[in-house]
Amino acid sequence: MREILLLDNGSRRPQSTLALRDLAARLAARLRQPVQPVSLAHSDLISADKLAGQPAITLETRLLDRLRQGVQRFLVIPLFFGPSGALTEAIPALAARLRADAGPLDVRLAAPLCPLPQGEPRLTAILLDRIATAARETQFQPRRLVLVDHGSPRPEVNAARRWVAADLRSRLAAGIQVEEAAMERRAGPQYDFNGELLLEVLRRLARADSQGPVFVAPLFLFAGRHAGPGGDLDEIAGAVKVEYPALRIALTGLVGDHPALLDILASRYQETLEAGA
After folding, report:
1. Quick check: pTM over 0.85?
2. Is residue 138 a part of any domain in this protein?
3. Which residues contact 276 (CB under 8 A, 6 or more apart)?
4. Burial of 139 (0-12, 13-18, 19+ CB in 10 A)
5. Same domain for 104 and 125?
6. pLDDT in tens, 132-142
7. Domain residues for 67?
């Protein structure tokens, strides 16, 4: 039996760690076995008094603690949309270092949320549901949509966003314009695969039509520095509305608290088992 770890990248914002814990508890109920929430980094800097007195745990800390207790086999389910460096480089390097220092260690890593080339239609379905909910709540008719992610220095991570955007285009009503944007990107033409920044896309759409509504669908799991109340998404939308007061911007909900995410995570767990974990 492997210990199951649900892994996110980590955030310094308490609400992100609390959301990870809630998701891990729901996944544990779905799988009918314990699931430990862990972060790659950052979350251990949060004061425990902001986390109901329970400090956040990083992946390295959990692996070390359990190795000392004789547990050597782990299955990590990553909360990453694509194959980021955390999955392809950081975790294998960490496992190799711990193996050299502490002895036998077997870490199996499940596929990301949107593995390519097959993609993940259920992820698109979550976004479609979030868009429909925002349309009902705002009474706006969705005609322009911006799918925004964090941005990445790796084109294979960006490819996951592009797959989702293409799937959205194929499943939304004809005539709905689907744009893509990143929250941040590195300078230089070698990173042009990220496309435009969100601020640039919203300004361009506002210049074309300063009154028609724009839906912004974040490809983010939890509230943190970028997403959630008071995050960068809110600030960017507010800044554009100062420039274009008649523009209507609707931010859709996040992916992490959608109930259908459990279906994807349970599938990643089962796929890893069937692959010989």
Report:
1. yes
2. yes
3. none
4. exposed
5. no
6. 999 999 999 99
7. 3-109
